[in-house]
Amino acid sequence: MDYEGCQLNAYQCSANVWTNGYGHTVGVTPNSEVTHQEVVGNLVRDVQSAEAVVDQWVTVPLEQHQFDAFVSFVFNVGAGNFQRSTLLKKLNAEDYTGACNELTRWVYADGKRLKGLVRRRSAEREVCLNAYTP
């Protein structure tokens, strides 16, 4: 799922965080620029980091499609938000449907409901609830 688009120049995302590449935020400063090679390396590391968060904090078995949806979610909202979320509490209580449905609550940035987040969370929920095959 491609929600971020790729930006080589730093920009402030909807949550006012300096960002580049495909939603990479670590060490990004105003006026910084990255190469396509750096974007790919950052994306791989960012996804691996999100996978590690899901692996660390989820204590119940997941189907691949559920894992993928939650990795996408963590990639977007960050580890801390995931760790403190009702979504994680429901998931670890084996309320899989409830956890998947929680995704659609995360559609606000800086207090504003954003169409892009509504679209992303809806897609993540669909993947989470249904084994997805391209």
TrEMBL record:
It catalyses: Hydrolysis of (1->4)-beta-linkages between N-acetylmuramic acid and N-acetyl-D-glucosamine residues in a peptidoglycan and between N-acetyl-D-glucosamine residues in chitodextrins. This is Lysozyme. InterPro entries: Bacteriophage_GH24 (IPR051018), Endolysin_T4_type (IPR034690), Glyco_hydro_24 (IPR002196), Lysozyme-like_dom_sf (IPR023346), Lysozyme_dom_sf (IPR023347). Belongs to the glycosyl hydrolase 24 family. It holds the Pfam family Phage_lysozyme. Signal peptide: none annotated. PANTHER family: LYSOZYME RRRD-RELATED (PTHR38107:SF3), PTHR38107. It comes from the Bacteria. It is an enzyme of class 3 (hydrolase). Keywords: Antimicrobial, Bacteriolytic enzyme, Glycosidase, Hydrolase. Its EC number is 3.2.1.17.
